[in-house]
């Protein structure tokens, strides 16, 4: 927290965490927050960057640029991002971005092991929306 952040009503990491997942925030503010969280690299900052993959903003070009920036912000921290990404993979309905991150920071064998662990934690009982299970199984097509 900088000296002038005191006069802004706090700020710091909490401000950026709140802003990055808010689709109603101004584009330039969200972008600033993505950059700040990527530079921070803490577990909390990485988890906040992952939240960016759960929202969509208009225009789609801006959405893609922000998600790409969040992706690179997470990947640059390598192994430090593994636990938050794995947790996000378990809790999120979307698999595309977390899998893309895992493929960048892990070997193919490790990604396969992570997917098998995720699949083992899923129930075999009836589920109203089995899409996540289908997506995990389909992701094995890309593995050797």
Topology at a glance:
Elements: H1 12-20, H2 27-40, H3 43-51, H4 60-75, H5 82-91, H6 96-105, H7 108-121, H8 131-139
Task: Describe, in plain words, how this protein is organized in 3D.
The protein is mostly helical. Helix content is 63%, strand content 0%. The chain contains 8 helices and no strands. Helix 2 (27-40) packs parallel to helix 4 and helix 3 (43-51) packs parallel to helix 5. The termini are far apart. Residues 4-10 have low confidence and may be disordered.
* Helicity, as a percent range: 55-70%
Number of helices: 8
If you average the pLDDT, what whole number results? Answer: 90
Shape assignment: globular
Structural class: mainly alpha
Strand percentage lies at: under 5%
Sketch the topology as an H/E string, one letter per element: HHHHHHHH
What is Rg? 17 Å
Largest sheet: none
Low-confidence stretches: 4-10
Count the beta strands.
0
Note the gap between the termini: 46 Å
């Amino acid at each position: 927290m900088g000296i002038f952040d005191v006069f802004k009503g706090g700020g710091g990491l909490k401000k950026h965490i709140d802003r990055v997942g808010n689709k109603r925030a101004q584009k330039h503010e969200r972008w600033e927050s993505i950059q700040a969280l990527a530079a921070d690299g803490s577990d909390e900052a990485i988890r906040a960057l992952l939240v960016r993959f759960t929202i969509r903003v208009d225009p789609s070009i801006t959405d893609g640029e922000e998600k790409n920036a969040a992706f690179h912000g997470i990947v640059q921290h390598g192994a430090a991002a593994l636990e938050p990404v794995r947790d996000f993979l378990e809790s999120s309905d979307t698999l595309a971005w977390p899998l893309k991150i895992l493929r960048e920071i892990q070997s193919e064998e490790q990604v396969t092991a992570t997917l098998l662990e995720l699949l083992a934690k899923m129930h075999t009982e009836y589920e109203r929306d089995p899409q996540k299970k289908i997506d995990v199984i389909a992701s094995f097509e890309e593995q050797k």
